[in-house]
Structures are given as structure tokens and as C-alpha cells.
Structure prediction request, 541 residues.
Amino acid sequence: MSIKLTILEQMTQVAREQGRTLAPLRDDLALLDSGLDSLGIAVLVARLEDRLGTDPFTNSEDVHFPVTLGDFVKAYENGAP
Amino acid sequence: MALPEALSLRRHVAETQADRFLFDRAARIRIADLVRGTSLDGDPTALHGRSVLIATASQLTSALTLIELDGNARRLTILPPDIDGAHLGALIADAGIDAVVTDGETPHGLHDIPLHVACMPKVVPIDRGRPEHVRTEWVLLTSGTTGVPKMVVHSLTSLTAAIAPRADSDPLVWGTFYDIRRYGGLQIFLRAMLGGASLVLSSAGEPVAEHLLRLARHGVTHLSGTPSHWRRALMASAIGSISPRYVRLSGEIADQAILDNLRAAFPQAAIGHAYASTEAGVGFAVDDGLAGFPASYLEGGCGATEIKIVEGSLRMRSAALAARYAGARGASLRDSDGFVDTGDMVERRGDRYFFVGRKGGIINIGGLKVHPEEIEAVITRHPQVRMCLVRSRSSPVTGALVVADVVLKPTCVREEGRAQVKDEILELCRGALARHKVPASIAFVPELAVAATGKLARLS
Prediction:
């Protein structure tokens, strides 16, 4: 499964667990408008670290936390081990 | 029972029946033999009035030394087995140690102590003079995980303040999963010695199943340990070989699940959980089979111990309080009213208070706080869960998240069963806890580390 698909699948999973409704997942969607709050995004990042083996936001000092979903996915694609 | 200061431990055990013993894995000591005998290699009066470090490898020789030297040495400092050697110098200086008792090779770092005496796991007869009776200080080390352990000064009187005199004279056999060189285990040692009982000691490295079988062989009637000790014991099939009349928990929060599991395992036993800390001593016991303690305890409902709650944290005052900390690192132990702050946080629900965790153990999730123990108490409600540990996992978004490591009961082995249990646990957490307290992930692990103190090892 591609990195992007994994991310979208986990977003859906976390949203379901947290009783949240996701906005349509387009690349230019602001992460904080996605329907997940910061706790949801934190859980998402932890789950993705377990599945993809990387957490691009902790492992690199100069990565700023992404604003849009597209940037978020790109951070994982760039950081893929 | 409050002992008159004049009665030393040895004089106390002297008034004893012939058929009482101290057992460990390798040896059996008849307690009555200690009246006209000694386990020390040499003249016990050489240690008279000294500040003695008890640094034996085995619990049995520590026990024999304590009986020998209470009322004889000026101060007894009890070295727990897992002490960091780097702290020994500071401890020796702070406690003014001028003699050491060992039972084998002298541990590294103790060679400079002027007087060395060996203790053997046997009793040899001696003609005993009567050394002048000394009021002995007992120094215990706290089990803090960082820094130099604090040295807490007790006396035999404060250590035994919570031990009630026994109404009956049935022969008792005490056992404990604790090491007796820590407060929880020392309580059981003194309870057995003052209560006319035999005592079965644990041995380092002994598998749980073998320990249980040994307890069964000696006919254990009273058995004590932490909830983590008990959860481990309940996982061993040998648990069926013992049938104690009294089951005691202390040292960690006893949640409803462990109390219910013990009730199911030992339907005939009285099951009690005791609240104690090295500094505050034994505060109170709860015998109604329910977690937490009745709110009435705050209005003088728990015997000689007074308790109050300041900013959510439990404070206690009683005769069981330690006198002070020894040495330069000794911060003040009591508040202005003479209460000791236990650092244990409680929360009132209805007419009961429940322990929610340690003051310093809070996990901060994006500004929202949680005690891991609160989440653990929910997870262990699941019938397939034997024990669990909730810990912090760092997060670039919220600073921290909570995650759970869970040990399942052996009956839950099938993979699809596990996936379902995971969902059920999360469901349970979502129903009972605020959103930030629901674990971000759950991992099933074969076992959890239990520290030498008998408590679940929490990494900071």
C-alpha cells in the first residue's frame, strides 16, 4: 500500500475511533480542518510511526509541522526509510 | 502493638514456642535457638553501640542479624539488594556506619568500613553476657528510582505501631513476595516475629511457581505482596497449591480487578489491602474487599492514624511515622502539623476515596493531565487482562500520548481473539475515560517488568 493510502486509511480509522467526521481529503485541505483535532493528529502520527517506521516531525529538527494534508503526506514520502 | 522501648526484638522472640521457624530456599532456622545462640561469626558484643550496615546477600541472614542486633547496635541500616553501588559512599557517611555485617564476599564499596562481621545461615550456641540495652535506630532506604535513596529513621516502636495484638494463638505461617529489606517486607517480618508465627522468605531469582510450591509445603496461612506480585502469582498454575487464610496487598494501588481475582482464587480467605509508605509507615488497612477506602477514614475512622487530603494528596500522622531522614540530604519529613505527605493522589467518588496515582507520575497530553494508574484501573476491568502498564509516548503534536502494554490471561491465545480484546479494551476506555486518556495504541506483551520493590517498573 502506498504511503498516501496508508495515511488516508489511518485518518479514517482514527476519526471513526474518536467519533469525528472527516472533511473530503484533498491535498490542499488544512490539517486542522480535516475533522481531527490535535489529539487526533497526535494519535495519527503515533499510528503512522508504528506502520511506516518513521515520524518525520520528531526525527528531523528542521521540519516544520505541515499545514495541509498534501504537506503532511509529503513529509512521510520524503522521510520514508 | 506499641512495644515498650526496653524490649528488644531478640528478647521478644525469646518468649516463643519451639516449633517456629524462619525458612528460605536453602535453610531452616528454629527461632527459639536464637535465645542461646548466634548467627554472627564472632562475639556479638563487638557490635555493641555501633552504627551497623546490614549488607548480606540473603534475606535470611539479614533477618538473623536484625534479631541479634536490635537493642545492641546503636543504629541498623538495612541495605536493599538492588542498591546502586555509586550511592554507597554517601550512605555510609550519612549514617555514620562503623561496622558492616555480610554473609559472603564483601560487596564492592564497603571495604573501608572499620569492622566487618560475618553472619551465617545457622545458629551456634554461645554463652551470652547481657550487654547494656541500647535504643536502636532502624534506618530504611526509600525506593525512589533516581538519585541517592533517602534514609528514613524508624524505631522498633514506630515500625510495629500498626501491628495489632493477636486474639488467638493458632500457629501462623507468614509468607511474603516482598524482600524483607524494604518497608513492605519488613512489616511482614516483624508481624511474624512479634505475632508468634513462622516466616517463609522469598529467594532472589526463584521462579514464582517454585516459590508458591515452597509456600504450600510450609503450609502458609498468611501471604502478602504487591498487586503486581499477586498478578504474577495468579498467572502460575501453582497458585492452586496454596490456600492462605489471609491475603494482603500493599505497596501499589489495589484495583477492584485484582481484589476480585483474588477473591475468586481464594474464596475462603480474608483479603485486605494496606496503605503504607516507608516514611509514613502503615497508615490503614481496608478489609471490605473494595478498592479505595471509605471517606469516613478522614473523620477518625481508621484507628490511630489521622489522615487529611491537601491538594489531592494524602497526608498521614500516626505513631508509625518515621522520626526523620538521616544525613545531609534529609529534607523535612513532616508538615507544620506533623503530617507526612505521601505523594499519593486520591479522588473522592461517592462515599469512598480512590487512589489515582503518584504526584510525580502525571502524564501531560497537550496540557491535559492523567495518572497512568487511572487508565490501568479501567483496562484491568477487562476479564481477559491480567496486568497492564500505561506509559507516556512522546508526540510532536501534543508532547505526549498514553499507550498501554497489556498482559493477557493465558486463556486468551488465539490471534483473532486478541484483536477483538483490543477493540473491547479501547471501547471500555472510551466509555469510562476522557478522550485524551484513551491509549493511542495497545500492545500485547508476554510479561511486564516488576522492580525489586515488587512494584511495576515505571520508566520515567
In short: Residues 3-79 of chain A form a domain with the Non-ribosomal Peptide Synthetase Peptidyl Carrier Protein; Chain A fold (CATH 1.10.1200).
